[in-house]
Amino acid sequence: MSNKALEGCTLFAGPSLQGVDSQLLCGEDLVLRPPVKRGDIERLVAHSPPSNLAIVDGVFHAHPAVGHAEILEALRAGWRIWGLSSMGAIRACEMDTLGMTGFGEVYRQFASDPDMSDDEVTLIHQAQEPFLSLSEPLIHIRQFLRQWSTEEIITPAQEQHILNHLKNMWYGYRTLGCLKEVLLALSVAEKQIDGAIEKFSTYRIKSLDLTNFLKLQPWTRTGKYNVASRDTA
Fold it and tell me: Quick one: pLDDT at residue 61?
């Protein structure tokens, strides 16, 4: 790839935008698009010169998921592509040896654990803007439970019990209300649970990764830029 910086960045995002400062989305060089689906990148590449592209969120149920072939064709056409937070992190992990660049903690977790399931980042959300989440991805709940186990609010055995319970549940049923019910069943004080849920945004690493990406604006830099790779500890 040329050392000349490509202009602008097209960002496919939806529910991961929750909690992201709107000021970070106001740059003239940033084009915001809805969660990516099969064919979106193919159409973009067909009608636009090579530029920067970031995949954050993507659909897979109502429409086929974004394909590896169209990403690969975009890379071959000179596009610079990042993947982070959700569907993007998964595709970047699958294609980082083919030129796609992974970014952030969610990507790091997928890259470091070959057994990590796509189900970890899956959720249901509104079909239209602002694509508000209607359930909570397991990866966020896992972060929360790990912290509570570290602080000895729950035991490691209880942490694993809750995770096993939620993993065997359809992702659309994984809500903070559901999490509260499980914790109440373990005799955790309701006031303590409610206080933690009010601050749950601190565990939403999908949105935190997107915030960091927008702050760093790696698309403005030349050369290879990879914050997290398979070698990251």
Answer: 67
Q: Give the pairing of strands 101-103 and 80-84.
A: parallel
The pLDDT score that the predictor gives to residue 223 is 52
Find out whether 92 and 104 touch, Cβ atoms under 8 Å.
Answer: no
Quote the CA–CA distance of 113 and 221 in Å, as a whole number.
29
Compute mean pLDDT per 10 residues along the chain, 233 residues long, and list them.
68 95 89 94 94 94 84 96 97 95 97 92 86 93 97 96 95 96 95 96 97 94 47 24
> What secondary structure does DSSP assign to 165-202, as a single string?
HHHTS-GGG--HHHHHHHHHHTT--HHHHHHHHHTGGG
| Boundaries of every domain in the chain | 1-233
Q: What share of the chain is helix, strand, coil (3-state, %, to 5)?
A: 50, 10, 40
Element (H, E) at 101: strand 101-103
Structure tokens at 78: 């000179």
* Residue pair 223/33 in contact by the 8 Å Cβ criterion: no
Evaluated on CA atoms 47, 63, 136, 128, the torsion sign reads positive
Residue 157 CA to chain centroid, in angstroms? 28
pLDDT of residue 23: 93
